[in-house]
């Protein structure tokens, strides 16, 4: 996998509560690739430190490893202690939601997201100048958080276009109802889910017809379409000057670089590099990293997830069997447990409407429009549902309001 790992914690909804820790990556076919799961009492420093130590033992040392998470203090403290050599970045979506909640404006978060995803230092400065003109407080908030934490341009390592923790959130969504189960049942549910995922994805990878994965091949096709409108001027055998719509880029096929920075930051050719490669009749696959190739995807899912069998057939050592595991010290909150997550401030959309004029955007106390008149067709009620007089059986009144009751002859 590309060395970018998203980590997140989600609540367990069983009898004893707790937190499930999730770490995921993304394979070359843009699919979620689970790495590790863990159970803890809550998202505190000790729980995160224990889980990250177990993760370090499973991953060993990776030089260019990048973690993506939200801005939880325990996550940052655990990573800095257990993985001091790792680049820790923050999720752009969570960071944008914090900006919306803090400054009550959506436009500042959108500009920050554009600055975070750009590959060019020039475009980054342009977006940040726009943010400074729009809201100085939001600009200072983004700078205080550290551009190396949320900006792709200033990140010390490659993020490979993975700017959010969506791959971890997808796992949480798949386990939305399974998190109500006991821990051992939940673990078996996860194992069974991954068993099916690995089998189906391994079969799909073997049936791919191209050297690249289907997702990477589709991106190549879309970028090749732009090459028809580009002007390619060779400088030497490896260096080319690409012109398009008044802009100019320089591509070096030997070093696999481009002045747009997409080629070297993603290890995947940009449209300018594809135009230069077509000029030299080079295979596009040679410009892609192994992460995006079909053989790598097959190897990623080649080891199956095996079933564990019935507990009666397990071979448990005596030192493990003699341990006494107590119930967690947890206290359930009063009331019915919440099934869904709390919506963020930007997701809560309320439309205010006036009951005086029927228009939206204000209420009846601030309404200056004329009162709404119902000019629509009247609703006809069948006669069997209308009031009837018990004296003359007329429709439209009862015997108390009957206009002819005084003339009744007994």
Short description:
This protein has helices at 45-59, 73-82, 92-103, 107-117, 121-134, 136-145, 147-150, 166-174, 183-206, 214-227, 262-266, 271-279, 294-300, 318-321, and strands at residues 4-11, 19-26, 32-40, 66-69, 87-90, 231-234, 239-244, 247-252, 257-258.
Would you report the number of β strands? 9
Q: What average pLDDT do the residues reach?
A: 86
Cross-sheet strand order for the largest sheet = 3-2-1-4-5
- Biggest sheet descriptor: 5 strands, mixed
Q: Helix count, per DSSP?
A: 14
**Uncertain residue ranges:** none
Order of helices and strands: EEEHEHEHHHHHHHHEEEEHHHH
N- and C-termini, Cα separation: 98 Å
Radius of gyration: 31 Å
Q: Which percent bin holds the helix content?
A: 25-40%
**Proportion of strand residues:** 5-15%
Q: What is the general shape? A: extended
Class computed from helices, strands and strand pairing:
alpha+beta
Organism: Acer negundo
InterPro entries: MULE_transposase_dom (IPR018289), Znf_CCHC (IPR001878), Znf_PMZ (IPR006564), Znf_SWIM (IPR007527)
Domain SWIM-type: 249-281
Region (Disordered): 327-381
Q: Could you characterize the architecture of this molecule?
A:
- This protein is α+β, with helices and mostly antiparallel strands and 410 residues long.
- It has 14 helices and nine strands.
- It has a five-stranded mixed sheet with strand order 3-2-1-4-5, sandwiched between helices. A four-stranded antiparallel sheet has the order 6-7-8-9.
- Helix 4 (107-117) runs antiparallel to helix 5 and helix 9 packs antiparallel against helix 13 (294-300).
- 24% of the residues are buried.
């Amino acid at each position: 996998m590309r060395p970018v790992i998203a980590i997140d914690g989600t609540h367990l909804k069983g009898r004893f509560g707790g937190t499930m820790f999730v770490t995921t990556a993304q394979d070359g076919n843009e699919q979620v690739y689970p790495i590790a799961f863990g159970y803890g009492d809550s998202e505190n420093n000790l729980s995160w430190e224990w889980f990250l130590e177990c993760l370090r033992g499973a991953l060993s040392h990776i030089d260019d490893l990048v973690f993506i998470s939200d801005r939880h203090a325990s996550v940052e403290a655990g990573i800095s202690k257990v993985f001091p050599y790792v680049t820790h970045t923050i999720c752009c979506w969570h960071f944008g939601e914090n900006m919306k909640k803090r400054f009550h404006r959506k436009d500042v978060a959108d500009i920050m997201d554009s600055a975070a995803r750009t590959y060019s230092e020039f475009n980054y400065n342009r977006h940040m100048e726009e943010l400074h003109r729009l809201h100085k407080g939001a600009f200072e908030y983004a700078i205080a958080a550290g551009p190396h934490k949320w900006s792709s341009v200033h990140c010390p390592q490659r993020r490979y276009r993975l700017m959010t923790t969506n791959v971890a959130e997808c796992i949480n969504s798949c386990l939305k109802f399974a998190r109500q189960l006991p821990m051992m049942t939940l673990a078996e549910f996860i194992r069974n889910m991954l068993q099916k995922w690995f089998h189906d994805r391994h079969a799909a990878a073997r049936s791919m017809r191209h050297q690249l994965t289907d997702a990477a091949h589709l991106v190549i096709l879309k970028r090749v379409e732009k090459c028809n409108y580009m002007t390619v001027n060779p400088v030497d055998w490896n260096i080319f000057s690409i012109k398009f719509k008044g802009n100019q880029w320089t591509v070096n096929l030997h070093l696999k670089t481009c002045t747009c920075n997409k080629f070297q930051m993603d290890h995947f050719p940009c449209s300018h590099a594809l135009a230069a490669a077509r000029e030299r009749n080079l295979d596009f696959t040679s410009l892609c990293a192994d992460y995006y190739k079909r053989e790598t995807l097959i190897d990623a899912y080649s080891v199956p997830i095996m079933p564990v069998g019935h507990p009666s057939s397990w071979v448990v050592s005596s030192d493990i069997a003699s341990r006494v595991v107590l119930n967690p010290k947890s206290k359930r909150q009063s009331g019915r447990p919440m099934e869904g997550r709390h919506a963020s401030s930007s997701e809560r959309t309320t439309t205010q409407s006036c009951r005086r004029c029927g228009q939206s955007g204000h209420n009846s106390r601030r309404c200056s429009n004329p009162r709404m008149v119902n000019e629509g067709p009247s609703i006809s009620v069948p006669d069997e549902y209308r009031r009837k007089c018990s004296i003359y059986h007329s429709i439209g009144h009862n015997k108390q309001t009957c206009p002819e009751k005084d003339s009744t002859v007994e």
